[in-house]
Amino acid sequence: MRWTFKDGSPWDGGTHVLAGRTFSGKTRTAASMPLVQVEEEPEPEEKPKRVRSSQPKPRKKQPPKPKGATAWD
Questions:
Q1: What is the CA angle 32-26-2, rounded to 5?
Q2: Which of 2, 32, 56, 62 could pair covalently with 23 via S-S, beta carbons 3.0-4.6 A apart?
Q3: CA distance 58 to 51
Q4: Residue 11 falls within a domain, yes or no?
Q5: Mean pLDDT for all residues in the chain
Q6: Does some domain include residue 12?
Q7: Does residue 23 sit within a domain?
Q8: Which whole number is the average pLDDT over 7-30?
Q9: Strand order in the sheet with 2-4
Q10: Measured between alpha carbons, how far is 26 from 14 in angstroms, rounded to an integer?
Q11: Which domain holds residue 19?
Q12: How confident is the model at residue 73 (pLDDT cuts 50, 70, 90)?
């Protein structure tokens, strides 16, 4: 198990216990922050890659614009 701060950033230094809570740092100082113990996650298994279809799908043809719809008409 490992220690992290409440925001999720890891802590690998010394710790001390005060009033049943674990804090960062070997001794209590003004910079000591409360820590949360988390279980280490197993290494993620490699996901199989998605196989693309052999032919790309054709794009839909745009319908023609009515006369006068653009500045060049």
A1: 80
A2: 32
A3: 18
A4: yes
A5: 83
A6: yes
A7: yes
A8: 90
A9: 10-11, 2-4, 36-38
A10: 5
A11: 2-29
A12: low
